[in-house]
Amino acid sequence: MTSGKFTFAPGTKPLTGFTIKRGIQRGGFGEVYYALSDGGKEVALKLLHSHVEIERRGTELCLNLKHQNLVSIIDIRQDEDDDTWIVMEYVSGKTLDRILTDDFPNGMPVDDARSWLAGLAAGVDYLHDKGIVHRDLKPQNLYREHGQVKIGDIGLSKIITPSQRGAQTESIGTIYYMAPEISRGEYGPEIDVYSSAVILYELLTGYVPFAGETTAEILNRHLTDQPDLNPLPPRLRPVLQHALAKDAAQRTPSLGEFLAEFDAALDGQTINIPTAPAPQPAPQPAPTLPGLVVSEQQVHSRPGKPPRRRTQVYFPADHLGPLAHRNIPLSQRGLEASAGMAAAILFTALLAASGQWTGLFNDSHSATPLTAVAYGLTTLLAAWALLVGTKAWEGTGRESLSWRRLSLLLLGGGVGATGWWLHQVLLVDLPPLAASQTAGLVDSIGSMELVQNNQPTLTGYVMFFGLLFGIRRWWWHTDGFRPKRLRVLSLLLTTSVSALLGLVLQFPLSAAIGWGLGIAIVVQLSAPWIAPELRQARLQEEGATHA
Amino acid sequence: MPSLTETREMPARRTNPNGSLSTNHDRSLLWIDAVGGFLLVTRPAVTIGGPTGADSDIQLLASLSRTHATIHRDNGHYRLQAHAPTRVNRQDVDDWAELSDGAEISLGRSVQLDFHQPSVLSASARLGFQSDHRPAQSLDGVVLVADTCLLGPGRDCHVNCPEWDDSVILIRRDRQWLVRSPRLNLEINGEPLRGEADVSNGQIVTGPELRFHIEPNTPADTPQRGRQT
User: Fold this and answer.
1) Residue closest to A170 by CA, chosen among A281, A303, A61, A53
2) What is the residue-wise DSSP string for B12-65?
3) Whole-angstrom Cα distance, residue B120 to residue B182?
4) d(CA B72, CA B47)
5) Which one of A134, A139, B99, B184 is CB 3.0 to 4.6 Å from A97, fit for a cystine?
6) How far separated are the first and last CA of chain A, in Å rounded?
7) Residues A172-194: tens digit of each pLDDT
8) To the nearest whole angstrom, how far is the Cα of B18 from the nearest Cα of chain A?
């Protein structure tokens, strides 16, 4: 949905008897307004822009259909400029698309999905019984009002009889929900079953089964890829497999039967599904497909600014990665942060006891208990700061780099200052600067020296830890959905960054490497981690908790 | 007999439980393209009731008493006064209940509202319709405006406009609605906005990907046909 620029201003009366109050939606075949009749009746007015004849013909056929699950069409009117308007029942409330984005970004509970499917099946079966195929079923066209599912935008519908299959020459639909046979110009009622199955998949998982960065890629996937059914509850997989069959003849024949199979699967009955046929050959890129008019703009509802949920769609793996949108309760965050802090004590103690690590901090390469305590406490403080500081960002689904880096920079500065104070109190010196390191790129910040008496000053500590915190994306190291519990590459990168900082800031190199490596190890080992195979279940659980 | 226009310019008098008068200056409708319609109420004591009485500031099509409950704002804090069966956060309210951000309000048997005070910088609050009960028009929410009403994409906004690039501030001052935006280039009836401007009389505010207007909560004036330029 987009606001864009609507043709008519609020308060105008382009169609006699109706006053426009606001624009609702723009795109596709025209623009839709919320308007009041002179008597006060709420209506949705749809002004047709293009494909006027296609939609007008489709709408005329549906003008007198009555069903509780269909948005009623009240009339088709011409204005004084001969523009065509469709007067429709106004349905209040959010579209299913908006509900998914706002309330169920990782999928909704099965019972909720079932109620949407039931309404969809009743309305679409009624249309099919009248010989009409909707052709454009998608979450943006579905509403719920007074508990009733409403199917909108049936203007694309057209009469389908066996003799007219394939007669269609032009189509505009939404590519994510488009059945494979549409690319061959076939528009049987099975395409609505396929679209409904895509919608159900999205309701249960939060993302569509076939995604891609271009129209051609998505189309190719509809034609050739088998859907990944693993994220679905096991008993529902055969049902979705049946309804998403590439071959329309092999597909679930009607929405009613789709719902019956869904219910039977929930009851634990075995579903006898025909074997899926072999994938068909890949088609040519979309623009050259016969009888298909699509544009890249349909992939991105707003060019250059895809909606948040679509970001998941383009990169399906991300929904189980550190960019996943999760509803983590505050209590859970607190619990995980506490568990991470407790684990950090253990891992830091093990590390501090390791002579090889603490030896990095001592020029004689023989660590004393006091140096181990000083370096260990600073490492633990840094790890705690990172574990707690990044916990608030986990599962937000967004990654504001500048804001996060600035926050961590300040946090690191604080850790540096505390570390400096600890070393002053405990009278523990860092190893003196090597001769080769006495000429760093930076030796002062304004009038504040970074090094005095061969030891980093307070400014030196603040700069080193601040930059170490600010440069690395530590929230990836602590996220429960990070790819691996401990990534060696990540450790090497952090060590390199800390070494570089040591060289630039004249911070003793061995201490810089020791802290960079130590903090990275402790943080990654301590931060709670959820194995990939358990993440889908965790998302469902968090979604249910949130709801 | 007065003309229709004269009738509309007269404040619609109504009496609240405290005996003072409520006028249409206290209630406005905010229409936002691609977002929805919202009732803006500026009184510090806002009454909620059913359709049988004309006494309520928020008159819902629901089986409620004429004046079912009153929401009072005092120094940025909100309290609900129950005049008929009411629950807040699933607890029966005998007389008064505090309202905090996220409170769930149940009126009578079936009306469910939610209460949000999303911004610490504004004493204004938002009532959302959780059940399907709404005023005679299918509005999307009510904003109890103390001083400002924030429209925009952020969670701290009183009206969430997810597609907007940045926030717009509505300011209630001297019975006027003033509009301002820190970062967006707005136009008022096609003229560039500099600083603040009064939009109380249906002026159309446009900006990148946005358009809205405010009108008094009375029958609309007779409009003229015309395309937007």
Assistant:
1) A53
2) --EE-TTS-EE-GGGEEEEEETTTEEEEEE--SEEEEE-TT-S--SEE-SSS--
3) 18
4) 9
5) A139
6) 25
7) 447 899 999 888 878 889 999 99
8) 31
What's the burial of A87, exposed, middle or buried (CB within 10 Å: 0-12/13-18/19+)?
Answer: buried
For the segment A378-416, what is each residue's pLDDT rounded down to a tens digit?
999 999 999 998 888 887 766 667 788 888 999 999 999
Residue with tokens 């060289």, as numbered in its chain:
A503
Residues in B closer than 8 angstroms to A26, CB to CB, are 34
Report the residue from B137, B209, B220 with minimal CB separation from A4.
B209
* Token pair listed for A424: 């002053």
Whether the pLDDT of residue A497 is over 80: the answer is: yes
The pLDDT, as a whole number, for residue A159 is 37
Is A396 within 8 Å of chain B by CB? Answer: no
Give the nearest partner residue to A2 out of B31, B34, B132, using CB atoms.
Answer: B34
Asked if residue A106 lies in contact with residue A186, where contact means CB atoms within 8 angstroms, the answer is: no
CB A464 within 8 A of CB A470: no
Mean pLDDT in residue range A317-341: 77
In this structure, of A304-313, A462-471, B74-83, B177-186, the range with the lowest mean pLDDT score is: A304-313
**Among A residues 92-111, those touching chain B with beta carbons less than 8 Å apart:** 92-93
Residue B227 has pLDDT above 70, yes or no: no
**Are the beta carbons of B33 and A14 separated by less than 8 Å?**
no
Chain A residue numbers touching B51 (CB-CB < 8 A): none
- Rounding to the nearest 10 degrees, give the CA dihedral for residues B21, A42, A95, A252: 150
Q: How far is A26 from chain B (nearest CA, A)?
A: 8
Q: What's the rounded mean pLDDT across residues A422-444? A: 76
pLDDT surpasses 80 at B65: yes
SS3 A503: helix
- CA neighbor of B114 nearest in space, from B77, B76, B132, B88: B88
What would the mean pLDDT of A452-467 be, rounded to a whole number?
A: 89
Distances (CA, A) of A275 to A76, A242, A251: 46, 9, 10
Pick from A133, A115, A121: which is nearest to A62 by CA? A133
Q: Do B228 and A8 touch (CB under 8 A)?
A: yes
Instruction: Tell whether the model's pLDDT for residue A256 goes beyond 90.
Output: yes
Residue A7 Cα, gap to closest chain B Cα (Å): 6
